[in-house]
Amino acid sequence: MSEPLFDVENLYVSFPDPNHKTLFGQMPMVEVLHGIRLKIEEGTVVGLVGESGSGKSTLGRALVRLLDPVSGSIRFAGTDITYLDENALRPLRRDLQVIFQDPLSALNPRLTIGTIIGRPLQLHGLANGRREALKLTQEALEHVGLPTAFVARYPHELSGGQRQRVGIARAIATRPRFVLADEIVSGLDVSSQAQILTLLADLKKDLGLTIVFISHDLSVVRRLCDQVVVLRHGEILENRPTGPLFEHPEHPYTAELKAAIPLPEVDGDWLNS
Amino acid sequence: MSPDKATARSYLDIDDLSIVLKHQPTHRLLRSVGLHVMPGEVRGLVGESGAGKSMIGKTIFDILPRAVEIVEGSVRLGDDELLKLPQSARRKVIARTSALIPQDPLTALNPVRRIEPQITDRLTRILGVSKSDARERARALLDEVHIRDPESVLRNYPHQLSGGMRQRVLIAAAFAAEPKLIVADEPTTALDVTVQKQILKLIAEMQARHGTALLFVTHDLGVVAKICQNVSVLYGGKIVEDTEVKSLFARPTHAYTQALIAATPRYDRPDESLVPVPAAVIEATQHEIAAADDAWLGARQAGGRR
User: Fold this and answer.
1) Which one of B46, B166, B197 makes the best mutation probe of the A interface by having the most chain A beta carbons within 10 Å?
2) Domain map of chain B by residue range?
3) What's the complex ipTM?
4) What sign for the dihedral angle of Cα A159, A164, A167, A172?
5) Contact list, B188 vs chain A (CB under 8 Å)
6) In CA terms, which of A249, B195, B216, B244 is 20 to 30 Å from A202?
7) What is the pLDDT of residues B231-248, one digit of tens each?
8) Which is it for strands A235-241 and A227-232: parallel, antiparallel or unpaired?
């Protein structure tokens, strides 16, 4: 059996806790993830769901090493990346891409779309010179269904849905093996949301991407993900293929989350159930 | 139900409301909007971002930005025609009869004041209730919104409460002065689903007990299905559908409404394809709007000449 793309063992992450700091001395730490174990197979879309404070974003950020774990291990494609420093991570960064929730704050307002997508390609040595970077940038834009002329535009000139496409184009331009998508449709109208979800499903198929999709919206997760991880208070309660998890939730909390979603159909008893 | 009959009984009556940009008076932001909410009714106001949902809310509370102007229409609360009153009288009517449950419970509460005055202000200032009576009433209200330890919560500052608790406090504050109309502006968008369900239940319970007219502004068709009896669908500043919630889901008449429903993912129908609102539907709806605009402009110019 081949090795999973991600193999997380006994992962602990803590943050400084500003609510309990004293005037002098070190800030006390609060533990956010308690011994996470998780395997992610290449080419799958894994949903991380849970309520605010459950640790879903923290786990996502730990996977792409946007933060430093306290203990445990994260193996990515056979390499232990748990404690690598930024220099050692740099060559891996092209394979560990992130799409953020709010594309307006994730895209530098002073750079054109061409620079936003193209410059990382040059930095990673994936494009020799500006011309090649431009060509790859245009390909990435086409891939996400945007006109290539957008290379000359600035983020504020685009709509919310278009900006999120740029965020996706930037993430896939380096041809990564893994993309973290953190609540990327929660700020969008349903129509843009439907477009972005369709796009992600296509990208997964075309590029064989492995995606971790963080969302609080179970209806969206059901649509897109092969596997769902339910988190609460920094622990994994349930981790199963999407269909069975939705049809027969094993953990009562999963059932509660599911029952709390208001489906667009009239049901007089729902509020009191 | 005929519109006349609805008007006869409703508490909030918005008719033919058109709002334009001051520096571009032919461009309408709200297009002859009609909206009616009866006492005891929960009406949903649904639309995507930019549809004009908050513009309607701002009109009701007389807090429109300076750059826009009401050029036509009427806004009636009970027997008071707001647009015919001078501003001070208008604001008095609004304060006495209406309240808002806002979207973001953290920014809506003053961070440097305790909870108590933020509930009792309305009672002492608007209704002239004595301080001790107001305090008593505030405690009863927190009880009513199922806050377990009202005494200590009254002494708390907003940051000491969770998001769900803050929203409960704001609901208590909204119902404090027994308003006739409450506008709930996306009150659960910032909350987790399980908390959202509790808050929806609470709003429905309070609304039913007090017999308030409730306008529920949201982008979430699921929420509309669970809490509203009637619904108005807004697109581009125009009400494209106005119907009972039951028929909205059973037989949506406008193509845009149908498309909106089709674009909403459901966990119970994973195999149903998710269709974004088709370009053709957007185009047709925009044509419809342009035609209405032409007719409106024509009528106004003819009226102006007369």
Assistant:
1) B197
2) 3-305
3) 0.86
4) negative
5) none
6) A249
7) 999 999 999 999 999 999
8) antiparallel
Amino acid B45: pLDDT: 97
Question: What residues of A are in contact with residue B194 (Cβ under 8 Å)?
Answer: 51, 256-257, 260
In chain B, which residues have their Cβ closer than 8 Å to the Cβ of A190? 48, 219, 221, 260, 263-264, 277
Q: CB distance B265–A223 less than 8 Å?
A: yes
Q: State the nearest Cα–Cα gap between B41 and chain A, in angstroms.
A: 15
CATH of the domain at A40: 3.40.50.300
Residue A186: which pLDDT band, with cuts at 50, 70 and 90? Answer: confident
Total domain count, chain A: 1
Q: Is the pLDDT of residue A80 over 60?
A: yes
Looking at the domain assignment, is residue A242 inside a domain? yes
- Select from A148, A181, A190, A167 the least CA-distant residue to A106: A167
Kind and range of the H or E run holding A198: helix A190-207
Say if A20 falls within a structural domain. yes
pLDDT score of B190: 81
Residue of A54, A57, A266 to mutate, interface with B, max B Cβ within 10 Å: A266
Enter the pTM of the model.
0.91
Put simply, the chain A residues between 17 and 46 with a CB less than 8 A from any chain B CB are: none
- Does residue A114 lie in a domain region? no
Which residue, among B63, B161, B156, has the nearest Cα to B118 in the 3D structure? B156
pLDDT confidence bin for B1, thresholds 50/70/90: very low
Q: Is the pLDDT of residue A196 over 90?
A: yes
Q: H-type helices in B61-185, by residue range?
A: 87-97, 105-108, 115-125, 131-144, 150-155, 163-175
Domain B3-305 carries which CATH code? 3.40.50.300
